[in-house]
Write the structure tokens for this entry.
Amino acid sequence: MTCEFSLKTFDELTSVDIYHILKARSQVFVVEQNCPYQDMDELDFDCLHLVAHNNEALVGYCRIIPPEFNRMKSNLSVDNDPRAAAAMPAIGRVLVLAQYRSQGLARQIMTEAIKYCRKKYGKKPIIISAQTYLIDFYQSLGFVPEGAYYLEDGIEHVKMVLNITKKTKVKKQGTDTSKASTILGILLLILSVSFIAGLIYLMI
């Protein structure tokens, strides 16, 4: 399923946008999951709101929490630098409306959110509080579970972190090949000279 994405700060959202976002969040996290909890929180004002549209209708959503407003911290330091684990962006409230599921939309939403975090916040890990039944899905995107499971509003969750993959330097094969070719050429030259010298010696 192909969607159009919009990414807005809270102030950029229209009243209609906010209505549809809160309606979708209530539908999925409160009604479907039978979990009466306070969905609206003060963080919404500081988040970026990523909406997936199909024919202008909201079909999926997530919010991105900037590092300076994110209260979640990694259990593990990154590259042994505690500062790296202390301030990282988070992705939350990830949802796809029931009638649009099983079409790869959740992966598209997460991919868009990750892409934005990488562009905006650079080489910072990204943290999420994942419902445990979705661990495999988030692992397929590169997230790694951290620590023990915990209950959040009566639903089992686990922290998961997407770290930056270190690039390993690979030796260019071309350099080794050119060196080998040079050595082989020198050896062939020496053999040729030796052969010619041998022939001359036999002819004298």
